[in-house]
Amino acid sequence: MGYVQVKRGLDVVGAVLALLLLSPVMAVIALLVLIFHGAPVIFVQQRVTQGERIFRLRKFRSMRAADPERGRVSDEDRLTAFGRLLRSTSLDELPSLWNILVGDMSVIGPRPLTTDYLCLYTEQQARRHDVRAGLSGLSQVSGRNCLDWDDKFDLDVRYVETMSLALDLRILLRTVTTVLRRQGVTKDHEATSDSYGGTLRSDLVFFRQAPAVGPVRSWSVETAGGRPVGRCQTLAVSERARMIRFDPAPAPATAPDFTARSHATTDAAVFAEVLRLVVNRVRSANADFAVCSL
């Protein structure tokens, strides 16, 4: 019997015991969710697990219902203090024990993400679906929401390649300490992270983040050889709207004729890559506007 079969047996036993032991806690949380957020108590969303199979993930609701008349439209507006507590302590995940019991998930594995990301993974990143999605995983105990998406997916693939009982036990123990200490909630001390808009890695250009100035985040953009390409910024244009803009670096002095054609070819490839990365950042930041002067 291989570890995959053993792992499934351990998942079933663990889910049954956890549901029995934690049922009083879940009942109290359900009542508090009903008081703070209203019905329904359980949030259900389509997520992706092994073999890119889509299933219905269950969690406790951490947000109030959208209410445009009261200005509750964005996730930030709808997320309550109680909801932040649920997320930062991972108590909102307790209903997912049912998903483990029925075989949608495992206790340990790559986190199940939304179906929106399926078309955005690289071939390497898609390998995270070679195993069942998990309640906790290697990336969750290695930085949680403080990690960039590309780094998270690297850890997911590493888990797929090295999965074992010893590794699962280490991750489980580290999960307990990480949650109790509320480590790595997010870069901005919130219980949420940016969306995934596609890989931000490139062999042609690099985005080097500068220190944030208020709500403005800036990156200097350079080629692999260190030549300045431009500057990218995310900024708020109103209380609710965000914009991403890219401004190219000033054009260098005119190159000699014998290099002009090669520079033009190189610049076209570089700016095409910049455009791809800016589009991915737009999706990641859920920006309302994008300005790209290429």
Write the layout of secondary structure elements.
Elements: H1 3-37, E1 42-48, E2 54-60, H2 75-78, H3 81-88, H4 96-101, E3 105-108, E4 133-136, H5 149-162, H6 165-181, E5 205-209, E6 217-223, E7 228-236, E8 242-248, H7 257-285, E9 289-292
Parallel strand pairs: 3-4, 8-9
Antiparallel strand pairs: 1-2, 5-6, 6-7, 7-8
Largest sheet: 5 strands, mixed
What's the N-to-C terminus distance?
58 Å
**Into how many domains do the coordinates divide?**
2
Helix content: 25-40%
Oligomer: single chain
Rounded radius of gyration (Å): 22 Å
Strand order, sheet with most strands: 5-6-7-8-9
Number-wise, the strands total 9
Question: What fraction of the residues are assigned to beta strands by DSSP?
Answer: 15-25%
Mean pLDDT across every amino acid position: 85
Label the structural class: alpha/beta
Low-pLDDT parts are 186-191, 258-262
What form results from the Cα inertia axes? globular
The number of distinct helices, counting runs of at least 4 residues, comes to 7
**SSE arrangement, N to C:** HEEHHHEEHHEEEEHE
How is this structure best described in words?
- The structure is a single chain.
- This protein has about 290 residues and is an alpha/beta fold.
- It has 2 domains: about 5-180, no CATH class; about 205-290, no CATH class.
- The protein is built from 7 helices and 9 strands.
- It has helices spanning about 5-35, 75-80, 80-90, 95-100, 150-160, 165-180, 255-285, and strands spanning about 40-50, 55-60, 105-110, 135, 205-210, 215-225, 230-235, 240-250, 290.
- Strands 5-6-7-8-9 form a 5-stranded mixed beta sheet, covered by helices on one side. It has a two-stranded antiparallel ribbon with strand order 1-2. Strands 3-4 form a two-stranded parallel ribbon.
- The longest helix is centred in the N-terminal third of the chain and has 35 residues, at about 5-35.
- The protein is globular, with a radius of gyration of 22 Å.
- Residues about 185-190 and about 260 have low confidence and may be disordered.
- Keywords: Membrane, Transferase, Transmembrane, Transmembrane helix.
